[in-house]
Amino acid sequence: MPATPSILLFMDDVGVLSSLEFSLSLNGFEVADGSSADPSAAAALVIDQTCRGDGLALLETLRSAGRTAPAVLLATNPTRALHLRATAARAIIVEKPLLGDELTRVLENILDAQDKETAP
Fold this sequence. Notes:
about 120 residues; Rossmann fold
């Protein structure tokens, strides 16, 4: 895993945003609020299902703008339709409420896979 990966968080709830920023930074991630950062430089995106009314639509907009960073969608009780849309948008769903270190493990796996892809 890179020493300071850049994870962008897209959350409407300021309390959740602050909690995730704190938690992920304790685990060694460099995190930023996605609403005020350039997504083209991100190592990964974490998007809440309810962000801007439809977090997956936000990801689809980012994808259509050429943003290819791996994405994690935080969702409560995701439906089959949401799973299909997330797969089409190349997003991994992590179910809320967030329990334990599942989000951290998913992000570590994403970044480890990126490291392997760029290794000589």
